[in-house]
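Quick question: what would this complex look like in 3D?
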Amino acid sequence: MTIQLYGFWRSNAAFRVRVALALKKLPFEEIEIDILSGRQFDAGYAEMSAEHVVPTFVHDDHRIFQSLAIMEYLDDIQPEPRLLPVEAKDRAYVRSLALVSVADAHPLVVPRVRKHLGEVFGADVAAIESWCRHWAEEGLATYERLLTRRPAAPFALGATPTIADICIAGQIVTADLYKLDLAAFPAVAALGKRCFELPAFADAHPFRQPGYKTGEGRH
Ligand SMILES: N[C@@H](CCC(=O)N[C@@H](CS)C(=O)NCC(=O)O)C(=O)O
């Protein structure tokens, strides 16, 4: 099977898919779409992504979009190691944890939202950074409350990482990009430490991607 991932070094959603692929030990080729330079609107890629976003995942000639759907697809085609538990209540729990970042926190800080804040509402760079920090911290605070109510042991749902841990780690990636201090979120920080000790997580971090060196400082 051949797998291609249209992604970007800084993309949180692409980070999630890189981790899932690495945990599954599935080799893939990543093709960079520079979403900070507007390459998501180029004709070739716009035809591929109706939403003009990354990631787009291509398995043989089958395309899948939305990182959560891609991770679930990977679990379907290669069940081990499991990224979603088998039991219905546990599956719902890890999906709920995942969606705190995927559906609620992360969408508020994506480039098209930041651009719109500047172009339509006149927000300057400092105001946009402040907006992003606020919503990133809201996501971390929610995770902190959730992990306090149901402590990680040692991962969010037991012995091995699931999509929940991948998405919580993604929220930490956002914190890293905005240089946020995790001291106020000790349960999140402890879970993040466990995750990023694993090469699958560490190697997927934006700061480890080839595009980071040239892209550093770009928002
Ligand atoms: N919910 C989508 C998020 C897709 C998304 O917004 N991707 C961002 C990068 S993380 C993007 O391509 N943004 C382009 C833009 O905002 O213009 C997923 O999880 O795949």
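Answer marked as accepted. The chain has two domains: 3-81+210-215, 88-202.
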